[in-house]
Amino acid sequence: MKRILIVGSGDVAARCLPWLTRRFRVFALVRRGAAAASLRAAGAVPVQADLDDRRSLMRLAGLADAVLHFAPPPPQGAGDPRMARLLAALGAGRSLPQGLVYISTTGVYGDCGGALVDETRPCRASTARAQRRVDAERRLRDFGRRSGVRVAILRAPGIYAADRLPLDRLQRGDPVLTAADDVFTNHIHAEDLARLACLALFRAPAGRVYNAADDSDLKMGDYFDAVADAFKLPRPPRLSRGEIGQRLSPLTLSFMSESRRLDNRRLKRELRTVLRYPTIADGLRDAVRRSA
Q1: Spatial distance between the Cα atoms of 93 and 17, rounded to a whole number of angstroms
Q2: pLDDT at position 139, please?
Q3: What GO MF terms are annotated (predicted)?
């Protein structure tokens, strides 16, 4: 591989760039010219195109040997037409990419009642947001089977980092669920997710899916308590499920309606990696150090 295309030039992509640009020629899709300068400064070549504009995507045909796809589906609808447009563009070139890594979400599993979940569990997404991800995964796997492109999917849970912590929410005093009503939640540090995506380009077998989660085994309220303690903030108040609905937005409540614990053994075994931040405690120690 000599040329890498990044689709979705956000935080995780930015964390990939230092490693990638030392080894490859990296192209990064941007919707607006304003983002181009920062990408150039990071060593990438900006390519202006829009996943909602089929014609603009044709310049991606044959451009890269591999693709890192970090862009989300649209915010509404039952499927992911952005994925369909991108795959059509990639398939229109004389040469196809050798590999494609997509960051999806563990929300595709739906509510699992706190059960330990591995990658063989069927997708039963319960929110429209997660159903769009299921559609994106299906399109991508079909593309891999038809074209021979080696596709890998990383299902990521809550992504955090020193600059991606719920400090504003804690300072507002937003509540969390009581222990009796609480749900299991899962996390991955943004630096680890970026590294896993790069490793998957080279180490993931075709069509493989991975739970891209750390080793933590926490309920959501305990996570917020841990962040509060690390930054010497008051712990959030605890409310019952019936009470909390009056205080939080429907989107926030939707994350409190699903409970699962993720099995990440396939990730470690097949991608042959050791996480830099294997637990929330490790990530918070680093965050406190950086803030000091």
Answers
A1: 25
A2: 98
A3: aldehyde dehydrogenase (NAD+) activity
